[in-house]
UniProtKB/TrEMBL annotation:
Protein name (database record): ABC transporter substrate-binding protein
Source organism (scientific name): Natronosporangium hydrolyticum
InterPro entries xrefs: Peripla_BP_I, SBP_2_dom
SUPFAM superfamilies linked: Periplasmic binding protein-like I
Pfam families: Peripla_BP_4
Length: 327
């Protein structure tokens, strides 16, 4: 199986009209000599259970035994500049392909253009970029955030036929998935006047921050809140602690819906502390490797590859999934 790079991967993303331009003779220096393919992974680094599962899955996939030289570069404290520096180093090193999980959606055009000039294909892992220009990358691989969030909203409409006062705990400002999850939620709830949005605030994917944010929100609303839309599991678990500290019962007085589907959330759903969990499947290393091989083998690659995800709407469904849960 040839592992030469081609501009096709880049062109393929621009509406998949691929023009295969074999690059065997071209640039890119030291990466990917012989059979080993060098993969530069511009990663997010420590950021909770979902991220740990996703990045470990990538590292477990692109192993030496599988013919890869994976260079893992987690961001320093989620700082985009550290990611841009790592990206630039990978281009200068001439790796065969770059995987990018962006801590911020904006500001990637110059780096992506530099990779394009160096004819190094780039695959977006989980996070999108803004503006979204598919001509600058091969594909994005991720569950569909809009779809996942609208499944949470559809559950809420069923769970609260007369509506509810709700609050949204958001991920960090500037992260693409936050806007996608809001648009998925709003696409369903937005048209339901019975649902009263009391507000939204970032808690940076953190249980601790979510606890403190939601303590304030409960006080400010005299506990008159029936529903929390938490954009990830950790923030939902933080809200549950705030609810208990206020002398209320999560799952009864206030119902919490989260996104991710990590073990901690399923355990809390099985205990009735969370009420709905939409999975955002982090384990897509195989799909990623397939796209890497396709990109490096002149095969067209769809510009957005959606990873399937499940939903859990009862303690029983969570309890049934827990024994086999890998994240
Ligand atoms: O980009 C995906 C999000 O990043 C997950 O939902 C969140 O838990 C993670 O940190």
């Amino acid at each position: 199986m040839s592992r030469k790079r081609s501009v096709r991967a880049l062109a393929g993303a621009a509406g998949a009209v691929a023009v295969a331009l074999p690059l065997a003779a071209c640039g890119g220096g030291g990466g990917g000599g012989g059979d080993t393919v060098s993969v530069g992974f511009v990663a997010v680094g420590p950021e909770g259970a979902w991220r740990a599962a996703n990045e470990q899955d990538v590292r477990d996939t692109f192993t030496e035994d599988a013919g890869f030289d994976l260079r893992y570069a987690p961001a320093t404290n989620l700082d985009q500049q550290s990611q841009i520096s790592a990206f630039t180093s990978f281009v200068d090193e001439g790796v065969d392909i770059i995987l990018l999980s962006a801590t911020e959606a904006t500001g990637w055009e110059p780096s992506l253009q530099r990779a394009q000039e160096a004819e190094i294909p780039v695959i977006l892992v989980d996070r999108g970029i803004d503006p979204d220009d598919p001509s600058l990358y091969v594909t994005r691989i991720a569950p569909d955030n809009v779809e996942v969030a609208s499944s949470v909203a559809e559950w809420a409409v069923t769970e609260f036929p007369d509506g509810a006062n709700y609050f949204t705990l958001e991920g960090p400002a500037g992260v693409g998935v936050v806007n996608e999850r809001n648009s998925g939620w709003d696409s369903v709830i937005g048209s339901s006047p019975e649902f009263v949005k009391l507000g939204a605030q970032t808690a940076n994917w953190s249980a601790e921050e979510a606890k403190s944010v939601f303590e304030t929100v409960l006080r400010a609303n005299d506990n008159d809140i029936q529903l929390v839309f938490a954009q990830n599991d950790e923030m939902g678990l933080g809200a549950a602690l705030a609810i208990e500290e206020a002398g209320l019962t999560p799952g009864e007085d206030v119902k919490i819906a989260t996104i991710d589907g990590t073990r901690g959330a399923l355990e809390a759903l099985a205990d009735g502390r969370l009420t709905f969990v939409a999975e955002y499947n982090p384990l897509f290393g195989d799909t990623l490797q397939e796209a890497v091989d396709q990109a490096l083998n002149d095969e067209p690659v769809d510009s957005y590859i959606i990873v399937p995800s499940l939903t859990f709407d009862s303690p029983e469904s969570a309890a049934a999934a827990l024994p086999e849960r890998q994240f």
